[in-house]
Amino acid sequence: MQGNKNPFKGRQFTAEIILWAVRWYLQFPISYRDLEHMLCDRGVHVDHNTLFRWIQAYAPELDKRIRRHVRMTNGSWRVDETYIRVKGEWVYLYRAVDASGQTVDFLLSPKRDAVAARRFFRKALGQPHTVNPRTITVDKNAAYPIATKAMKRAGELWRFAKLRQVKFLNNIVEQDHRRIKRLVRTGLGFKSFMTASRTVTGYEAMAMIRKGQVVRAPANDMGTQRDFIAAFFRTAA
Questions:
Q1: Of the ranges 4-13, 25-34, 128-137, which one carries the lowest mean pLDDT score?
Q2: Share of the chain above pLDDT 90, in %
Q3: Which of 99, 163, 171, 236 is the most buried (most CB within 10 A)?
Q4: Which pTM value belongs to this model?
Q5: What is the mean pLDDT of the chain?
Q6: Strands 76-86, 103-109: parallel, antiparallel or unpaired by DSSP?
Q7: Integer angstrom CA distances of residue 207 from 32, 80, 141
Q8: C-alpha torsion sign, points 215, 221, 227, 229
Q9: What is the per-residue pLDDT for 150?
Q10: CATH 3.90.1150.10 matches 76-178
Q11: What pLDDT does 235 receive?
Q12: What span, in angstroms and rounded, lies between the C-alpha atoms of 170 and 161?
């Protein structure tokens, strides 16, 4: 989708209905069939397969549009991976929050190794709302020291950044995983890596909005968040 084009052109339903469905699916643990019934109760008859296509189309777009509006995170990163089942296999979701619990970034990866860790750090450092970290707190995964040492040698990571392998200090990110796991559980697994990646991107984008990380979209103010998302897509709420 291009920002100067109508992202809802050709859709059978209005932008208001589509964004309502997208917001609710991405922030609450409901299935596509649950959402189908909820919309039906409002007099909107839309098939669950159509809802799936909406999420695949608009979840990544939501993430893309909010990125430059996300507040700056601090330089104390808490990094960890959690597991998601895709087509019967486990894949790894790298996630980082700062010391205050704000989302730094995330990356879904088929592997859990130094290459994946380095890819995640590069992605996080490339975001407009992040700074080069002073400390990176991780678990005992041996891939992290390998990745950070290589990045320091390459000048990709501040050479004085301190890597701390202290599991109990990562409670904040491990607790933050629970929200993602709760949302994923209702979906009964993903059929492909691509659909998993697009959906998880939407989960994380909506979480940043709900945490109050996005400028002019206060935490716990669903009305303002609704209007803000509508404005992103240039439509009435």
A1: 4-13
A2: 81
A3: 163
A4: 0.92
A5: 92
A6: unpaired
A7: 19, 17, 26
A8: positive
A9: 97
A10: no
A11: 61
A12: 17
